[in-house]
Automatic annotation (TrEMBL):
<keyword id="KW-0479">Metal-binding</keyword>
<dbReference type="GO" id="GO:0016787">
    <property type="term" value="F:hydrolase activity"/>
</dbReference>
<feature type="domain" description="HD">
    <location>
        <begin position="14"/>
        <end position="181"/>
    </location>
</feature>
<dbReference type="InterPro" id="IPR039356">
    <property type="entry name" value="YfbR/HDDC2"/>
</dbReference>
<keyword id="KW-0378">Hydrolase</keyword>
<dbReference type="Pfam" id="PF13023">
    <property type="entry name" value="HD_3"/>
</dbReference>
<dbReference type="InterPro" id="IPR006674">
    <property type="entry name" value="HD_domain"/>
</dbReference>
<protein>
    <submittedName>
        <fullName>Hydrolase</fullName>
    </submittedName>
</protein>
Length: 196
């Protein structure tokens, strides 16, 4: 295979991300979001909210991470953060399956390019560098806003309380984008209070 053959093979595989259904509905609650839409949306979030990034964060790298971060869902599917029992988000077997998927998918590319993308994906997953922390914060905030816009979405499906939202997601958003979490919390807390 030529370099171009490998790149187009990877791109054809990446198209499958559009077929992965997520737990979160789109803004009008008419259907679930797909993982391709989610990745595009997050890249736009990073571009738009770049001024919220801590000093030293490279928005170009953040956008690249966000475009790549969910490609593993082609093999593993979406694992909702609020799911209970069975396949829990962050469970060891899920993490292993995602790592294997990353090796397979990025392995379709020419060696140098695949290694670079795999390293970005691993950096995002480790969530230790300033770029990854900010990227992970955006990855957590977008579904919160979709659930809020759609009238509760997966919060209703998974019987999520505001306390659970703040513990599971709010702390992760605040770690990389504290002002963003303050803004979001001010808007969503009232939705939960009205349901009590």
């Amino acid at each position: 295979m030529t370099r171009l053959d490998q790149q187009f093979t990877f791109l054809a595989e990446a198209e499958k991300l559009k077929s992965v259904t997520r737990a979160t509905p789109i803004h009008d609650a008419s259907r679930p979001e797909n993982s391709g839409e989610h990745s595009w949306s997050l890249a736009l979030y990073a571009l738009t909210l770049a001024e919220q990034a801590p000093e030293g964060v490279s928005i170009d790298r953040v956008i690249r991470m966000l475009l790549l971060h969910d490609l593993v869902e082609i093999d593993v599917g979406d694992v909702p953060i609020h799911s209970k029992g069975g396949t829990a988000h962050g469970a060891e077997d899920i993490l292993k399956a995602e790592a294997a998927a990353a090796e397979r998918i990025f392995g379709l590319l020419p060696g140098d390019q695949g290694a670079q993308m795999l390293a970005l994906w691993q950096e995002f997953e480790a969530n230790e560098t300033p770029d990854a922390i900010f990227a992970k914060s955006l990855d957590r905030v977008q579904p919160v806003l979709l659930n809020h816009q759609s009238g509760g979405g997966s919060w209703i499906d998974y019987d999520v309380s505001f306390t659970q939202l703040e513990e599971r997601i709010g702390t992760k958003i605040a770690r990389g984008a504290p002002a963003v979490w303050d803004w979001v919390r001010d808007r969503v807390e009232g939705w939960f209070a009205a349901r009590s």
